[in-house]
From TrEMBL:
The lineage of its organism: Bacteria, Pseudomonadati, Bacteroidota, Cytophagia, Cytophagales. It comes from the Bacteria. Pfam families: HTH_3. This is Helix-turn-helix domain-containing protein. SUPFAM superfamilies: lambda repressor-like DNA-binding domains. SMART domains: HTH_XRE. Residues 42-91 form the HTH cro/C1-type domain. It comes from Negadavirga shengliensis. Transmembrane segments: none annotated.
Amino acid sequence: MKTSVKNKLDNLLAFNSSEEELAFKADLLAMQFLGWVDRKMEEKQMSKKELAEKIGTSAAFITQLFRGDRKPNWNILAKMSLALDLEFKVMTEASIQEKVKEELSEYHRRWVKTQKYLRLKNQVTDPKMVMAVEPASEDEYAMAG
């Protein structure tokens, strides 16, 4: 019975054509960009009318964009980014995963250094004598006791 419900749900959510899938992906991209615009507008306490004035369009057009009735083109997004001091960076899922791996690796490296420091600090009778585990570069925190 569960399989039957799952199959029905999968069929209901499946795309009927490649055009339908393409339209969905385009809508999703537009909403992702506009989501960042909306967050920045909230941060700057800017209304849709103010944004429209800054980018030289109507408030009605901005409303249509945010409702999903229309999609922003690259020029509109560029104008929004300038008006809001917002820099868009486009990354693929693979590049995001690579960046996450790099950050985790760096975090682990620093954690290991901290563990070395803590072990050394616990080995001495006067913890004030432990000054550093190993030399730190300019962009790292020196571990001192």
